[in-house]
Write the C-alpha cells for this entry.
Amino acid sequence: MYTQPPYLKKGDKIAIVCPANKLKKSISPAIAMLEDWGLEVITGKSISGDHFNFAGDDEFRAADMQVFLDDTSIKAILAARGGYGGIRIIDKLDFSTFHQNPKWIAGFSDTTAFLSHLLAALNTQSIHGQMPASFETGTPQSLETLRKALFGEDFSYAYTSSFPNRGGQAEGILIGGNLSLLIALQGSVSEVDYTDKILFVEDVGEQEYAIDRMMRMLKRSGKLAGLKGLIVGAFNSVPPQEIPFGQTPEELIFEIVKEYDYPVCFNFPAGHIDDNQALILGREVMLKVSNNDVVLSYK
C-alpha cells in the first residue's frame, strides 16, 4: 500500500510553486478560492520567476521546491502550471524530510514527473488535478473534486463515454498521468510498476502517430499486458496532418489493447480539459465499465 499524506483541514498552510514553465497570468483568483476553502496560501519565489520559457533557471526552481518539501508546516504543494521543466529538476531535490513528513503534491501535465516519482521512489500517494493557472476555466465539478481529494471527503465518478468501452470490472491501485511524461520516465527511479495496476493516461497536442508510438512502447515493454484496467482520459488538440493517420486516439488505443481482457474506458473527464476532475494516484479503486457507462470509486 502507498502512504497517504494527512488530509488538509481549515487553517492549514499550503504552497504554490512553479517547477516548470513560467506563469503568464495572475493566479490571484485561484489563491482567493483556496483561501475560501479555509487554507493559508504561501507562494514560492518561482511564481514570479522568469528565465526564458521557465519560471527561473533549474537551480532556482529546484531551490524553491526544496523549501516547501522541507517545511513541515506546509501541508500540500500545488504546481501553479505545467509546461515543461519538472524532469530537469527532480534529481536535484532531496525528499528525505518529505519522506518522514509526507504531504500532498498536486497538479497534472508536466507535474506527472513528480506524481510518478512519489509513487515509484517514495511509495506516497499524490493528486492529479487542476492547477491554479487553470482554476479560472475549470468546471465547478473539477475544482470540487480537487477540494474533496485534499480534504479527504468521499467522492466518485460516473459518466457516459461517447466512444464504446470494453466492459468489465476491476480493482487495483490507480497510477498514470500524462502519457508523454510517463514515457519520458521509463527506465528511471521515477518509473512506476505497472503490474496489476489500473492505468490512467491523457495527453494534449500530440499527433495520432505519436500517441500510437508511445502506447506501443508501453505494450512492447510488457506494461499493458499486466494491467487490471485502462482509463483513457482526454487526448485533445490533436494537430491536423496533411495525410490523415486513419485512426483517432481512441481507435488506435483500443486496437493496441484489444488482445487483453481487462476493462477499458474512454473519454474519462480528466486531462487538459476544463472538466479535469481530480484523481488520487496510489489509491485503490474499483472500476466498473459497460459499453458506454463508467463508474470509478475509491475503496
Remarks:
- Residues 58-70 form the longest helix (13 residues).
- The chain has two domains: 13-151, 156-298.
- The longest strand covers residues 168-178.
- Residues 73 and 282 are 24 Å apart (CA to CA).
